[in-house]
Amino acid sequence: MSTPASEYTPRRANWLASSNATAGGLDVDPEALDDFDSIEEIAWDSAPLTYHAPVVETADSKEIAVAVDGVSMVYRVRSSTEYLKAENRFARMVKQVTGSGWAEIPALDEVSFVVNRGESVGVIGTNGSGKSTLMKLLTGKVRPTTGEVYATSTPVMLGVNAALVRTISGRENIKLGCLAMGLSPEQAAEKFDMIVEISGLHDALDMPLKAYSSGMASRLQFAIATAVDPDILLIDEALNTGDAQFRARTKQRLDEVRSKAGCVFLVSHSLGTIKQMCTRVIWIEQGRLLADGDPEWVCSQYEEYTSHKSNDRKRSAQIVYDRTLLKLAPLQLEFSEGTRPTRAG
Ligand SMILES: Nc1ncnc2c1ncn2[C@@H]1O[C@H](COP(=O)(O)OP(=O)(O)OP(=O)(O)O)[C@@H](O)[C@H]1O
Predict the structure, then answer these.
(1) Contact (CB, 8 A) for 230 and 85
(2) Ligand 1, atom 12: closest residue by C-alpha
(3) What domain count does the chain have?
(4) In this structure, are 259 and 174 located in the same domain?
(5) How big, in percent rounded to 5, are the helix, strand and coil portions of the chain?
(6) Ligand 1: does its nearest atom lie under 6 Å from the Cβ of 268?
(7) How far apart are CA 187 and CA 176, in angstroms?
(8) Ligand 1 pocket, 136 CB below 6 A?
(9) What number is the ipTM of this complex?
(10) 111 Cβ below 6 A of ligand 1
(11) What is the pTM of this model?
């Protein structure tokens, strides 16, 4: 799908190459310079950036499961302070009295990618980067501000928020949950063993739910939610509640979905879970698609980025951001006649 990116020469390397002459023979280790923001400033301006032309991708209707085509999302929310930004005094007073100031919160910016059947895609990014927004758009329940999401079948969001009844047992909750998700009583009975198996709660099945720990309840909710057999499955953070055994069983279930020619999206802050479960990783940062590819590589860039961020090394974080972005070939989607999948929703 992607064209090999031309090699990116880190700016610091360029700077060091030119500075060797002036370094008076001193042996300077580039890595040792990482913490010096002033040096980063010099490095920053010394090398030009090169950007790729977009890769035009013709979507193959036999392979494709989801296509996200130039999607941007801006939330509009009422803001109590927005009136201060009104153009003149009168407008400001009106807004102040009516409280009608609106603030715009950009969440996604021109995101494009294609996911084929059988893929399991991890979605990573720091807090507020736009992962959940992307998931909401994939379900089709929320429309993007611009761009379009296409899917061959309606993606199903698997959350841990399916309602459970506290006063009845886990066993009864499984039956009730399946019926609530639209399964017939026969289908619910068929799925029962699998749900118990995934939840790992064999011994606690007849206890009322109020006696479950929150982790146990989450596992039960998650297991019930997996009873539906969606073609495209979206999971947002749900896997963080379980232990290693629970994750292993869940992986098995996700592999089943994938093997039935479906695809899975998994949002998680746990890179271990992502690497274990996914065949491909998408990194969304500040609303932009920053990387899309091999889980090991994308996660390692992300780890480097977050480590710089958490140590307040803004320049170094920015360098990792830019370097990673340069490896991404921007995608321009093209549908051949009659092959455009339906809009998600
Ligand atoms: N319903 C909403 N109304 C207004 N702004 C929103 C809404 N939902 C999300 N946002 C904003 O959109 C941006 C992206 O949020 P989103 O929840 O998609 O990020 P995230 O990557 O899932 O974050 P986290 O990892 O913390 O769950 C944030 O700036 C957030 O404040």
Answers:
(1) no
(2) 107
(3) 2
(4) no
(5) 40, 25, 35
(6) no
(7) 12
(8) no
(9) 0.97
(10) no
(11) 0.73
